[in-house]
Amino acid sequence: MTSLCRRVLLAGAFALGLAGAMPVGAASAGDMRIAFGDLPGIESIQTLAAIERARERGVNVELIILNDEDLAAQAIVSGQADVGIGAPYTLIQKAGVPIRLFAQISTLRFFPVVNGEHYKEWKDLDGQEVAVQARGSGTEAVMLLMAKNHGITLGKVSYVPGSEVRRNALIQGTIKASIVDAANRRALEAEAPGRFIVLPVDDLKATDEGLFATADYLKNNAADIDILVEELMKTAREIAANPAVAVEFRNKYKLLPDLGAEADTEISEYYKESADAGSLVLNGGGAEAAKDDFAFFSLSGQIDGDPATLKVEEFWDVAAIDRAAGKLGAK
Q: What protein family is recorded (predicted)?
């Protein structure tokens, strides 16, 4: 069994366990259950390192690996997790549960990829099947927005969690059009040069991954939230200043051991590209990030209403990032 298959099965086991569990009470002081709605890959090192550093500062973090952002969001709604990772704008607007984003981890940087033997440009995807991460995910939003901008209607939208999983499916030919992150775009180019075409996307400034929790949890666990947000900001700033630090984090905390030492070069290159592109968030997002998100997710059809009339406080709680910026300084 490959290391990737083991990771998929592990995530599936967590998902089944969470979906079948009875509701549980809130975590005790100093404990934090984080629902990670994706299969961790090299793009997760910054977040995983921040979690390890929060543990070093006394926050007892339990990381629940799920392979679907929907499951992570449902875990927060049901009280089976305390903090989720994703961009749950649709859920916030429609679930009736006071969930708030409280920090932005990264902004969207995805690459729609098609098999060049079948498609050459956006118009070729009219009526065709595409694969994205999950319902309500940034990958779906990008696809929907680009389809709208190019005047086409996508066919079936399949949900295939994990950028690495979608890359492998493209290589195997089981899907012909999908969307991947920078690391897996480079891998496709290396593994099958000339076979795939990266379709152009507009310049996007919207949340790819953020941290969210219920308003009550943020109020009642402010000290732990502050530690997590501070470490998230610090890891982002250190990696942006020197992308090779991501490799140091990986080795120090023994992150993603299945990938082997040969992944270190790819990790360094990925974070250099991300830092150069400005997709690492150094100040946690906040009101300006929310406004960018309103514009993007409204255009893609994932939230309703005029972006100019949407209120930041109905989607975000910026208190923790304001406190962290006051302590660490603004960037």
A: Belongs to the bacterial solute-binding protein SsuA/TauA family.
